[in-house]
Amino acid sequence: MKIFQTFEPSFTTWLEETYKELHRHPELGMNVQRTTCYVCSRAAEMGLTPEKLQGLDVGAVFVLEGTQPGPVLALRTDMDALPIDEAAPVEWHSLTKGVMHACGHDLNTTVMLGVMKKVIESDLASKMKGSLKFIFQPAEETLEGAKAMIEAGVLNNPDVDMILMSHGDPDMHVGEVGVFREFSHANSDEFFIEVHGKGGHGARPYQTQDLIVAGSRIVDALQTIVSRDIDGREAAVLSVCTFNAGSAPNILPSVAKLSGTVRTFKKDVQETVMRRMKEVCDSIATLFHIEVNLNYHIGAPSCPIADKAEDLIRSAAREVLGPENVKELKTRTGGEDFAFYAQLKPAGVMRLGITTPGEVRKGSTHSPTFQPDLRSLPVGVNVFLRLIEDFMTH
User: Fold this and answer.
1) Distance set, CA 312 to CA 48, 57, 66, 150 (Å)
2) Any idea which fold 187-300 has?
């Protein structure tokens, strides 16, 4: 593919070295101090200093001002890793036991640093109408980072008019890009249910309140919510993912704990699921004369896609890669805290192919064998450079 010859070899090497350094030193959640320092050191080599972030000592924001008035385009990337032991056979293996960049945030960060470097070196900034704001965000995996950055004023001074992001996608090959319409990600909620009752001997269940049966009834009833309470033309997922109760084969427990996830796209659907879950728990409590407590945690909201933002990505990717390599993707039921920005500003999401052409993926995201093809790095940089030029120089 000619895209691989777009940049000089020294820049491709710079991208790969940056990625490998980030990959070797993964950090979790809001504790990305080393990663933040590394990003700032790379930016300092370009002559940039970070903007002030009120109340935050992690994360970084850099602003490149054009020579003429115009819109403010923000490009956001995430920096945190996952609590996973790496099993990918790479020389740049994680040096932190139990922590790994298993979702590609190191790749996302490298792409954005590469975009920043090329905008400066190519003198694109001198031709821009408006400003570019680069947002390096902590804690996407824990859904804390975007909210913290917004509270710190990341969308202001200057005020952002549009915000974009990209993320590596192992279901697509290097040289392919995926785009969305309407939504890119779902509401990402969690629930925790505790069941309390009278335990006792398994041989005398009539003297107990059998929480195994009661908990099973809860699971069974919850599974009817999507199929019977949600309009078939809408989308929702409800999964019970843990059920913990009991400690011996002849003891009926006095406590059972269940947890799971709910994914929806529209607020009214989300509210229906929440209401019906509460009704199910209350009715089972009454039926079995037990106590059932539901704790429903609303996480990241669904991520709305603005046509004008996504079309900017779509058009640039087609110019760089060819229309046949730009894939129209269905909405993901995964969560992404980029949605907090997208609820406030016109937003677009790009999925960047990271699997070697002709091969199957080497581990999914959140897998210990996750391994992107590093030739995807210059592809991501090139698409972003084209969309910046298209949007900010005409």
Assistant:
1) 26, 33, 19, 24
2) Alpha-Beta Plaits (3.30.70)
